[in-house]
Amino acid sequence: MLKGKTALVTGSTSGIGLAIARALAAQGANVTINGFGDKAAIEKERAGIEGEFGVKTLYSPADMTKPAEIAGMVRTTEQTFGSLDVLVNNAGIQHVAPIEEFPIEKWDQIIAINLASAFHTIRAAVPGMKSRKWGRIINTASAHSLVASPFKVAYVSAKHGLAGLTKTVALETATFGITANCISPGYVWTPLVEKQIPDTMKARGMTAEQVKRDVLLAAQPTKEFVTVDEVAALAVYLCSDAAKAITGANLSIDGGWTAE
Questions:
Q1: DSSP 227
Q2: Is 2 a residue whose pLDDT tops 90?
Q3: Looking at residue 212, what is its pLDDT?
Q4: In angstroms, what CA-CA distances link 58 with 68, 129, 132, 214, 231?
Q5: Is 187 labeled as catalytic in the residue annotation?
Q6: How many CB atoms lie within 10 A of CB 128?
Q7: Which pTM was predicted?
Q8: Which among 161, 36, 150 has a CA at the least distance from the CA of 102?
Q9: According to CATH, what is the number of the domain 6-188+227-252?
Q10: What is the pLDDT at residue 213?
Q11: Model confidence at 26, in pLDDT bands (50, 70, 90)?
């Protein structure tokens, strides 16, 4: 479906982003992956994508808090593969604390990585997409782009902002064969979710199992975590011709969380 096209997925060295990168590669797209982590582990994933799916895969260590590095990543992807056709903004971090205790530097970092980085990638990628009259922009938002939870002021603010950014870009690019959409997962079992459990335990005075049952899965009527492969499958669908009329949408994949 995507043979001859190129995808860039930020925050794709693990979790949702890696699953999306692999799913797009399975459809024939060359892929740029991005993120932090152990160099050997990242190289293993990069080479694994190439070997398993027969595509070319590039790794960019661009820091999502640095606009110049972000623009450079987009430029390098275009120069290496000849185009950037699918942009997935997935990079994200989390911090859990009451607002009066929320570190200012954590607010700035979360807004930069979870929201501003998407502005910078889109700004750099849209000219090429417009010239080719085809593009798919997918932003990994969250159920927190639609509803709030306590102790996550920066994350909720960033994800609400990402939904607004997506709508604006969709309107600006609607006549150029480009779509822009949000995918808003509920709780997906990823390293990001696992790492926030200790802070939530502290903030709420709970055990780890209580956090999973009474905080995380309490919000999801299915009482199950969403899987990374389910999110990736939705991303692949949004890249298809069948989804070309879907733009400016915020698509929930949250086990019914935001239906309540």
A1: P
A2: yes
A3: 87
A4: 18, 20, 22, 41, 22
A5: no
A6: 20
A7: 0.93
A8: 150
A9: 3.40.50.720
A10: 85
A11: very high
- Does the structure show a pLDDT above 80 at 106? yes
- Does the pLDDT at position 191 exceed 90? no
Task: Count the neighbouring beta carbons within 10 Å of the beta carbon of residue 229.
Answer: 12
C-alpha distances in Å from residue 103, one per residue of 32, 110, 155, 202: 32, 11, 13, 16
Residue 42 and residue 33: Cα distance in Å, rounded? 9
Q: Locate tokens 């995507």: which residue?
A: 2
Choose among 61, 239, 21: nearest CA to 138: 239
DSSP-derived secondary structure for 185-220: E--B-SHHHHHHHHHHHHHHT--HHHIIIIIIGGG-
Q: What residues contact 106, with CB distance under 8 A and at least 6 apart? A: 95, 97, 154
What mean pLDDT comes out for the span 125-136? 98
Catalytic one of 59, 155, 187, 237: 155
Instruction: Indicate the residue type of 193.
Output: V
Domain ranges of the chain: 6-188+227-252
Q: Do the Cβ atoms of 174 and 240 come closer than 8 Å?
A: no
Contact 9, 90 (CB under 8 A): yes
